[in-house]
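Subject: for your reference before the review

Hello V.,

The reviewers asked for a structural picture of the protein, and I figured it would be easier to keep everything in one thread rather than splitting it across files. Below is the amino acid sequence we used in the manuscript, unchanged from the supplementary table.
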Amino acid sequence: MLKKLITLLFLLTVVQRIMATDFYINKIPADFSILSFSVLPGDTLRIEKSESCENLFIKTPDQNEIAVVDNKMIWVAPMESGLYVLSFFTTNQSFTIPVFVVVPLAQIGTKSPHFPIGDYENSGFKSLEQNQMPLGMIEVTRENQNTYVSPHFQLKQFLTKQDCDFPKYLILSTKLLYKLELLIDTMKSQGQVVENMFIMSGYRTPVYNKGLGNGKNSRHIFGDAADIYIDNDRNGKMDDLNRDGKIDLSDAKFLSEFVEQIENTEKYQWLQGGLGVYKKTSAHAGFIHIDTRGYRVKW
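And here is what came back from the structure prediction:
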């Protein structure tokens, strides 16, 4: 009975979120006040508003205010790489959309002595689009590293752990950010306290990922995976989420159940991905892995 009640409460939250979506950017619903996107120089963002959204305005980086008419518009990214902030306004809400115009990978060089990246496969695993070799990366500087890419996360939290100076480079999926924020919302809607979702590992370059002994098709090298745990007391390890008086594998499993709720919801099929549960070791606290690879797999 309790599980049915929890499921019902989650579905009610989903219904509220469906009603709250006023517009979409590249088909991703604008459900959060901050959500970043990455595009190549000269690439576009496609903005589409729902029929229920009467007014939608965009303030561009050059401070021009544009009304979205005919329910859609196209924003063309500048040719110069960097951070550009778009502001969206509806009748009742405002949204900040940081847009990172990436540096083409060919320009960075995969064997740079400053920031070695390593080689991506020329043909994507399983021939899926999300597994193709990336065309560009976000340039992370001392100035932009603290940029909020979603309400709870900053750009620097997803950086590879390689020891090098700025500028650093990063691939970061908007879908991953959405899934992390949705996970926080889902937990809070069911009475869980989430003050600090810790990103233990986000993006990894192929050379760093290989050094860890991980496979060449790891989702981390594509920027749509994160290893996470809840650490509200900020002591560097998973909290006692299930409140059984101890911290062990059951807390990671407890966290994973909220991810499964999301992936079992029809509206969020586009967020499906891998879900791994890991116990505490001498090297790290217990945690879970989530990604948005496009199909479900568990371990």
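For the response letter, the relevant points are probably these. The domain at 105-298 is CATH 3.30.1380.10 (Muramoyl-pentapeptide Carboxypeptidase; domain 2). The CA atoms of residues 63 and 86 lie 9 Å apart.

Happy to draft the paragraph if you're swamped.

O.
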